[in-house]
Amino acid sequence: MNDTNVSYTVLERLAAEFPELTPEAQKAATYVLENPRDVGVSTVREIAEAAKVKPNTVVRMARQVGFEGYDDFREPFRDAIRSGAADFPSRARWLQDIRKKGDLGGLYADMVQSALSNIEDTFAGIDAEQLKAAAEAIWNSRNVFTLGVGVNNSNARNFTYLASTGMVQFHAIPRPGSTAIDDLAWTDGRDVLIAITCKPYRQEVVEAVQLAKEQGVKIVALSDSPASPIILAADHGFVVSSNTPQFFPSSISTIAVLETLLSFVIAVASDEIVDRVEEFHARRHELGIYATGPT
Predict the structure, then answer these.
(1) What strands lie across the sheet with 236-239, from one edge to the other?
(2) What predicted TM-score, i.e. pTM, was given to this entire model?
(3) Whose CA, among 9, 133, 149, 167, lies 20 to 30 Å from 52?
(4) Contact 206/229 with Cβ under 8 angstroms?
């Protein structure tokens, strides 16, 4: 009943009141209890049609459990979608519902608030010593492999690109035409794997972390829960907040932590790193990579 984590308190209340409902209201309640994902993204008519009852019956059911009407009853389910507790299709349907109602101002406010909250919540749980320890492991390694797939693929590759402006041992995986498992085949205790995945956790990332761990590789993991399989396996784990009204997990905190981690790597590196970065950018200017003109 609560597999979506959507307003379990409301569902409990509905189940407790179930014997007191009329037979028709029980049909509506049964549908809600069995399909809680639908409530936050469906109108009263859509729920009534799915439950094979009249819309007024759904409204009476909502009032029976202490709400003024269906909209009031639906709000906790919508809140759960905003916070990311519902699945991707439900969130996408909720965004469409907002557009149809012309309530994009509310969506804008929710997006801004979730972005700020994610940053604040993430860094509240991380201290400088954690970042320093991970940075030292990265700097002292032979090779650093960064792994992210799906929405986190670009995050991993961006980190690798930025690091490569001053260091040569960074490799984004999986490489084209390869798999993460193959790319880690010859790793050992001299190497580091930076792995990123959030719910629903990508199997290939979890498997790569497990393999790397068995081979003695030091694991730096970014994920959205202390119970994430890659956080549990990590030598250096960072929990990022990924809540969002959008239908994919937010990457804002992940990017912020990666940028901060890289700044710590530069900070703990030997003095030669400054010369490397300067030489890298000087060569790019010499090769005409950057546009010339007013600055």
Answers:
(1) 170-173, 144-148, 192-196, 218-223, 236-239
(2) 0.63
(3) 9
(4) yes
Collapse the DSSP code of 101 into the 3-class scheme (helix H, G, I; strand E, B; otherwise coil) and give the result: helix
Q: How many CB atoms lie within 10 A of CB 272?
A: 9
What SS3 class is residue 2? coil
Domains and CATH numbers, the chain: 8-91 (1.10.10.10), 117-286 (3.40.50.10490)
CB 110 within 8 A of CB 242: no
Backbone dihedral region for residue 134 (phi beyond 0: left; psi -120 to 50: alpha; all else: beta)? alpha
Structure token digits, residue 193? 């794997």
Percentage helix, strand, coil, to 5, in the chain? Answer: 60, 10, 35
- CB burial of 58-71 (b: ≥16 within 10 Å; e: otherwise) equals bbbbbebbebeebe
DSSP lists the bridge partners of residue 195 as 147, 221
Tokens (6 digits) for 100: 């149809």
User: Measuring CA to CA, which residue among 72, 58, 68, 66 is closest to residue 29?
Assistant: 58
Q: Indicate the SS3 state at residue 221.
A: strand
Written as one letter, the residue type at 42 is: S
Q: How far apart are CA 156 and CA 149, in angstroms?
A: 8
